[in-house]
Specification:
The chain is α+β, with helices and mostly antiparallel strands. It has one domain: Aminopeptidase. It has eight helices and seven strands; from the N terminus they run βαααααββαβαβαββ.
Length: about 200
C-alpha cells in the first residue's frame, strides 16, 4: 500500500507572498492569472497578462497578513508553494454568472452573497498526482465557512477515469469535492457537475 501524501500547510492568500503565488501559477495558469472566471471571457480575453496579474495581486492582498479581504488560499509543502485555490462569493465570478453550467436545471439567485464558489484549483508542476486537490477543497470550505458562507459550490469535471489535460482540470475532479461532503445538485453537461455543500 502506498504511503499517504504529506499534509500541506494552507494559508489565506494574503498570508502568502506574491512570488510564492506566481511560482504556482505557471504556464496556462500564469497566462490566466485566475481572472477569467472573475472577469468573464470578453473582458479577460482582451486584457494583457500584466493587467490580469495586477488585478489578482490587488484582490489577494498577498504579503499583507493584516488585510481583511483575500480571494483564495495557498498551499505549502514545508516551505515550498505547491497549490492555489480560488474561493470567494459566487456572485463575483462574471464567467459563472454568464455561463449556463451553474444555473441549468435549477433556479438560483445569482446575487446571493451567502453562496461561495470554488471555480479554480491549481497544483504546481512537479507536485501533481499526489492528491493535494483534496486538501485544497477541504481548506477552501473552512475558509468560506469562517467568512460567513452558508453554502459553497464547485463545478468539477467528470473524467470517467480518462486522462485529462491539467488545463481542463482547473475546475477540479469530482473526488475531492465528494470527499469534502459536496453533493451533486445538477449535471448540466456530459462532463460537468454542479456540486454543493450546505454549511
Amino acid at each position: 500500500m502506498a504511503a499517504a501524501a504529506p499534509r500541506l500547510r494552507i494559508v489565506p492568500a494574503n498570508e502568502a507572498s506574491w512570488d510564492d503565488l506566481q511560482a504556482i501559477l505557471t504556464g496556462t495558469a500564469g497566462h490566466c492569472q485566475c481572472e477569467r472566471q472573475r472577469l468573464g471571457d470578453h473582458d479577460w480575453w482582451y486584457m494583457p497578462e500584466s493587467e490580469r496579474g495586477a488585478i489578482l495581486r490587488a484582490e489577494t492582498n498577498c504579503g499583507d497578513p493584516r488585510a481583511t479581504e483575500t480571494i483564495g488560499i495557498v498551499a505549502y509543502l514545508d516551505d515550498e508553494p505547491v497549490g492555489w485555490c480560488a474561493v470567494d462569493r459566487r456572485s463575483v465570478y462574471g464567467r459563472l454568472r454568464g455561463s449556463p453550467v451553474p444555473w441549468k436545471e435549477r433556479s438560483e439567485d445569482k446575487d446571493d452573497e451567502s453562496v461561495w464558489a470554488i471555480p479554480c484549483l491549481v497544483v504546481r508542476r512537479g507536485f501533481r498526482g499526489r492528491g493535494y486537490t483534496y486538501d485544497l477543497v477541504a481548506a477552501a470550505v473552512a475558509h468560506a465557512r469562517a467568512r460567513g458562507a452558508e453554502a459553497i459550490e464547485g463545478y468539477p469535471m467528470v473524467t470517467g477515469g480518462a486522462e485529462v489535460t491539467w488545463n481542463e482540470m482547473s475546475v477540479g475532479a469530482v473526488g475531492p469535492f465528494a470527499a469534502a461532503g459536496f453533493v451533486e445538485v445538477s449535471h448540466p453537461t456530459k462532463r460537468r457537475l454542479v456540486m454543493r455543500l450546505e454549511l
